[in-house]
Amino acid sequence: MTPGHGPSEGPRFFVPARRPESRGVARAFRPTRAGPAGIVALVLLALGVVTAVQVITTLLGNPVRIVPYDQVARWLRTTTWDDGRALAVASALVLLGLLLLLIALVPGRGRMVTLTTGDPDLAVGVPRRTLSAVLTAAASHVDGVRHARARVHGWRADVRADTDLRDTAGVGERVRAAVERELDRLAPAHPMSVRVRTHGPS
To answer: Per-residue pLDDT tens for 124-143?
Structure first.
């Protein structure tokens, strides 16, 4: 990383030489689904404990009856597959399985933005708040901008620029160009879009 001192460039994390071709870099900081996975693990653990207790106490001749086994067995023996209740339970289980599969496949929103470097095996993670501050600094140094603020949402940067000039469209284009130059310099692993809103004198 090379520290920077230029007021118009903002803090400099590094100077990327090229984008790596490996897709593994783009997935380097993919967030895990630790929360849902933990909940599923706890539910399965609870079911396993209940089943073990039920089986062990039954083998010892003194079943605890945590689960109303007789009622469940009677319902299973007397219920056909085309029964509405059986179809409802099966549909609920299918939907639950599809939901868990979707949670596992779709990555959550990470706290870090992956930036590429000149080394195809090296990626750098920057907090979204830090990247927002860097883009805010880039927009604030544009001529005609009185105040600017940038926020990073997903793979999009929203920039608000206040100006005392009447030509808000021109200021907006300069702000967009400055923010896009900063993004090109930082080289995020995923392309980021830029949305700029300018507010002129009231």
So the answer is: 888 889 999 999 999 999 99
